[in-house]
Write a structure and sequence with these properties.
- The chain has about 140 residues and is mainly alpha-helical.
- It has 2 domains: about 5-85, no CATH class; about 95-139, no CATH class.
- The chain contains 4 helices and 4 strands, in the order E-E-H-H-H-E-H-E.
- The chain has a two-stranded antiparallel sheet. It has a two-stranded antiparallel ribbon with strand order 3-4.
- Strand 1 and strand 2 (about 15) form a beta hairpin.
- It starts with 6 loop residues before the first strand and ends in a 15-residue tail after the last strand.
Amino acid sequence: METLPKKIRKRDNSLVAFDEEKIKRAIFRAALEVIRDEKRATQIADVSGKKSLEKVASSFKDKIPSVEEIQDLVEDVRNIYLLAHELKCKGITIYRYGTKKNQVLSFDTRTAEESGEDFDFITAASEYSGGCHSGLCPF
């Protein structure tokens, strides 16, 4: 992991030492509130905290981050893990849009007008849809 910031800018514009444990504690409290299981909340906080810290380190290489900027990054990671838990997902894979020629989900580059639809939409290749395991599916 890249180096974490040494300082963080508070709302009153003062600088204080960056405390990575605050990130893990905030994620733990949120997870505990949702799932009400201290052991799982600790696991989620550990994994989400590490991912949040990696994002902080890569996003603020040459800049002192503000409290709001850190909160936004932590919220994104926290929300992903909490939603995955709520949906009973087995795992999470994070794709960076445009890094692969044929990616699972992609935005149709046509506008609604060009496509003949009345909305912009997301497309997914059929081999990524999970298929029909029973043979009884209507598609």
